[in-house]
Design brief:
Length: about 325
Amino acid sequence: MLDVLDRALIHALHIDGRASFTQLAAVLTVSPQTVSRRYERLREQAALRVVGLPDPQLTGHEQWLLRLTAAPETALDLAHALVRRPDTSWVYLTGGGTEIVAVLETPLGTAHGHALLLHELPPSVGLTAVSAHHLLHTYLGWRTPWRMSANALTPRQQRMLRGTRCAGYGGAPPTDRDHQVHLSPADHALMEALRRDGRAAVAELAADTGWSPATVSRRLDHLRACGAIFFDIEIDPALLGGSVKVLLWMALAPAHLDEVATTLAGHDELAFVAHTTGSTDLVAHALCRDSAALYHYLTHGLGSVKAIRTLETAPVLRTLKAVGTIPTVGPPSHRG
């Protein structure tokens, strides 16, 4: 079980995933050694991980939500094939264990990138059905964490972490969403290293990019300030009250779409809300304490939103990949 300090540390890392243990200790009013010990314990026992993520819109990419169906005996093989790809995230085994849901990131303008992916999958995975949904707008998720994982710090503590940083730091997206950031090969190497370990030391990032440590620090500061990169947390949601995980697919009239999505983004039970193409208009990810809590949310929370015309629920049986790159070698190192 997580205590008050654990939850405060998790919230703090949502705000600034690269804050040093000394900075975090000052905000949490404990010693840096205590912060370090708690962080390591959360890594080992709660699967906590800080990851650096590029902003798709600002770095020239778009995202697709794929729903793939395979035979029962090959569905897990298909899921693992998607997990191994560097351009996928949020790989779930859902429903009765024969459907896989994954997010695929493709360069902007390659609208059929998801079709190319299907040609690259081995025939042995036994793919039987596929639907692709372009993520058009995210109302909750990515930069905005699930409230139950970021509700422990006081407003003053949050201000201390954010300090005087400009937009793009601390999770706040920049206001100019039309200006793309040109990324060099070294920038891509930097982002890939941070996707493996968002708290990697500057010296390690320098080795990955070929830059000097001073150049790495300056470039990382710039990419964060303009919003091209931000930091997120991976952790077992069951420890925060999200033992039951369900994907929700909803259809509604276009006139109500923005209003409903904005309303849903305010629900504590939801960690993700987005507008997609396809036969349904909205997709959401619900995290509830147990089945009774899910039932109450579906009947009273979503049930009170009259504009929702249809609702499909898909229980998440396993999360095989979250947002970060799956580590392939020893344990990561972290900033002190």
